[in-house]
Specification:
Aspartate Aminotransferase, domain 1, alpha/beta, about 400 residues, 15 strands, globular, seven-stranded mixed sheet, 2 domains, about 15% strand, four-stranded mixed sheet, Aspartate Aminotransferase, domain 2, binds pyridoxal-5'-phosphate
């Protein structure tokens, strides 16, 4: 009996019960590894929902954090600081946009993008006051604010939290005809994930985003791509939209933009959209703070210098093949792109949770998403050797003959 139970009991007693974590208490991390309070080592195959693409405690990101912490941490946007400009400059040049607006969490970036396209709709597209519509997809995940959960199709995300913000129209994901049918003269934006992460690693049909971009372009609708989880190398490109050769009108970034050490998010767009904001329209006390900006600069530099998108493409393609080669009675499908991979468990074999628990017993941390899916999304600094070793344990778990593994 180690220290784990005590920590879990304490959290159960004092925390709101809005999560159902695996029973592991982590106290240290390095690269793709974490250690619990009882000294057990685990391979992190979740990467904090892709916020740790650069690996835990990347030395260059930590150095930037410490150096900046010793100089200046927060000014608010009432004053300038010497980190925000260089950060946004680097971010925009890397991704090819004219402007960026820094926030902290992913949900804030999504809210910011919603405000931007609505105001663009009223001031540029001349949509009648109060009539702007944004098209969203079933099974989406864009965060947890009241506006965002208001356009979720997930009962639990919404139930008990209404009334909700109007102005959103829901269509099936991956369905171009539905998008065509949903767009009208008041449509200002189409908000979409290039791969639905929380929805269960759902990869849309090839060319979906490209077709959506063409439809949006023809109808003067802003294509708003949520790259908070898929972006910054995760799927084997800097942005997942690149797989379709698409340059979205607006992108939202978060998670790995803070290198796993600090919450940093941003919205990127060109001037036609971003310049609808005037002083006082929008803001955040911590958005663009010098500590986050310094961390963001280092986080981006690591992704570029260590060629993390290329690594994800190469390792991911190989790893997915290896997973597909496991002749498991429990697996319905293996899907994904780069190092964002979902193993779908057949309903007859129960839910994904016991498989995640068995993996944990073998030193691998993966979290189920949407009941049936085991997600594998390790830090992108992982090596083929480490993945090879993990495959042995994954194979063991997926080949357990009983309906439920143990
Ligand atoms: C995680 C996530 C968000 C929300 O980010 P938070 O930082 O948790 O607010 C939004 N969109 C997508 C696609 C995500 O994966």
């Amino acid at each position: 009996m180690g220290r784990t139970d005590g920590f879990i009991k304490e959290v159960d007693r004092w925390s709101a019960h809005n999560y159902h974590p695996l029973p592991v208490v982590i106290e240290r991390g390095e690269g793709c590894w974490v250690w619990d309070v009882d000294g057990n080592r685990y391979l992190d195959m979740l990467s904090a929902y892709s916020a740790v693409n650069q690996g835990h405690r990347h030395p260059r990101i930590l150095a930037a954090l410490k150096e900046q912490a010793d100089r200046l941490t927060l000014t608010s946007r009432a004053f300038h600081n010497d980190q925000m400009g260089p950060f946004l400059h680097q971010l925009c040049e890397l991704l090819g946009y004219a402007r960026a607006l820094p926030m902290n969490t992913g949900a804030e970036a999504v809210e910011t993008a919603i405000k931007a396209v609505r105001k663009w709709g009223y001031t540029v597209k001349n949509v009648p006051a109060g009539a702007a519509e944004i098209v969203v997809c079933e099974e989406n995940f864009h965060g947890r604010t009241t506006t965002i959960v208001g356009f979720s199709s997930e009962h639990q995300y919404r139930h008990g939290f209404g009334p909700f913000t109007p102005g959103f129209k829901m269509i099936p994901y991956g369905d171009i005809a539905a998008l065509r049918g949903a767009i009208n003269e008041n449509t200002v934006g189409f908000l979409v994930e290039p791969i639905q992460g929380e929805g269960g690693v759902i990869v849309p049909p090839a060319g979906y985003l490209k077709a959506a971009a063409e439809l949006c372009g023809a109808a003067n609708v802003m294509l708003m791509v949520d790259e908070i989880q898929t972006g910054l190398g995760r799927t084997g490109q800097m942005l997942c939209a690149e797989w379709d050769g698409v340059r979205p009108d607006i992108i939202m970034l978060g998670k790995a933009l803070g290198g796993g050490v600090y919450p940093v998010s941003a919205v990127l767009a060109d001037r036609e959209i971003m310049d609808v904001f005037t002083p006082g329209d929008h803001g955040s006390t911590f958005g663009g703070n010098p500590l986050g900006a310094a961390v963001g600069r280092a986080a981006l530099q690591v992704i570029v210098d260590e060629r993390l998108p290329e690594r994800a493409a190469e390792l991911g393609a190989w790893f997915m093949e290896e997973l597909r080669a496991i002749d498991s009675p429990h697996v319905a499908e293996v899907r994904g792109k780069g190092l964002m991979i979902g193993v779908v468990i057949k309903e007859a074999s129960g839910t994904a949770r016991p498989f995640c628990e068995s993996l944990k017993e073998r030193g691998i941390l993966a979290k189920e998403t949407h009941q049936q899916v085991v997600r594998f999304a390790p830090p992108l600094v992982i090596t083929r050797e480490i993945l090879q070793e993990a495959l042995e344990s994954i194979r063991e778990v997926l080949l357990i003959p009983a309906a439920q593994p143990s």
